[in-house]
């Protein structure tokens, strides 16, 4: 990603024609991702991580051979294609590492501008005093402790408790958002949201993104 900042003004460069170098990489990535997936399905984490490291090694080898920092001096369009391919590789790597390092995966995807959509089970829901549109939810992401989500759902869900036990879809890799503070009866508390619920419609008639009841908390949407 640092190369994109330096060589493409921090933007996703356009992809032009590829060569045998890229075609070979795409084949490797497809095969390795298949190995990663099968290893996790077989409950063989060591084999899965070995394949994941192989994916990273394939990327490093491509960088060394492509040398976009040198290519850009003679053929900027070709260098931009190489950078575009590297960004796609990083996206694939972020998927491969998720079962073992979900937080690192989310961090990578955030830097790439890719949302991490996750299934969450609502554990608690309550109105935010003196903030008519806001609810404070705690949601189970399958992590060590629940996360807090602050969402503008109060005009639709006037009885917040109906949300408890519901599976919702959340963008999980956003930076925390500060909503100030509120008094929930035990003195003022900081009101910080660690994610965003997916919903559509007007504030008075919002529709939450639905998900099957059997989906486990923390499952990633693809």
Automatic annotation (TrEMBL):
**What keywords are annotated for this sequence in UniProt?**
Aminoacyl-tRNA synthetase, ATP-binding, Ligase, Nucleotide-binding, RNA-binding, tRNA-binding
The catalysed reaction is: tRNA(Met) + L-methionine + ATP = L-methionyl-tRNA(Met) + AMP + diphosphate
This protein's record includes keyword Membrane = no
GO molecular function terms noted in the UniProt entry: ATP binding; methionine-tRNA ligase activity; tRNA binding
Does the keyword RNA-binding feature in the UniProt annotation? yes
Q: Which InterPro entries match?
A: Anticodon_Met (IPR041872), Met-tRNA_ligase_1 (IPR023458), NA-bd_OB-fold (IPR012340), tRNA-bd_dom (IPR002547), tRNAsynth_Ia_anticodon-bd (IPR009080)
Q: Which GO terms describe its biological process?
A: methionyl-tRNA aminoacylation
Q: Which domain of life is it from?
A: Bacteria
Q: Know the name of this protein?
A: Methionyl-tRNA synthetase
Q: Which species does the entry assign this protein to? A: Labilithrix luteola
């Amino acid at each position: 990603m640092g190369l994109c900042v330096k060589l493409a003004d921090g933007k996703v460069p356009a992809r032009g024609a590829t060569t045998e170098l890229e075609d070979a990489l795409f084949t490797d990535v497809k095969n390795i991702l298949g190995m990663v997936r099968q290893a996790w399905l077989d409950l063989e984490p060591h084999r899965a991580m070995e394949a994941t490291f192989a994916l990273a090694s394939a990327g490093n080898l491509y960088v060394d051979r492509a040398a976009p920092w040198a290519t850009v001096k003679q053929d900027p369009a070709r260098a931009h294609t190489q950078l575009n391919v590297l960004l796609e590789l990083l996206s694939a790597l972020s998927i491969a590492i998720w079962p073992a390092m979900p937080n690192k995966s989310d961090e990578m995807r955030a830097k790439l501008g890719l949302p991490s959509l996750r299934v969450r089970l609502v554990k608690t829901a309550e109105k935010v005093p003196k903030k008519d549109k806001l609810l404070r939810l705690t949601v189970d992401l399958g992590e060590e402790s629940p996360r807090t989500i602050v969402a503008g759902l109060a005009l639709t869900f006037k009885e917040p408790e109906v949300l408890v036990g519901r599976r919702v879809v959340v963008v999980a890799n956003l930076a925390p958002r500060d909503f100030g503070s509120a008094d929930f009866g035990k003195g003022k508390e900081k009101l910080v949201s660690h994610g965003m619920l997916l919903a559509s419609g007007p504030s008075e008639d919002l529709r939450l993104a639905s998900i099957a009841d059997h989906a486990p908390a923390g499952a990633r949407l693809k």
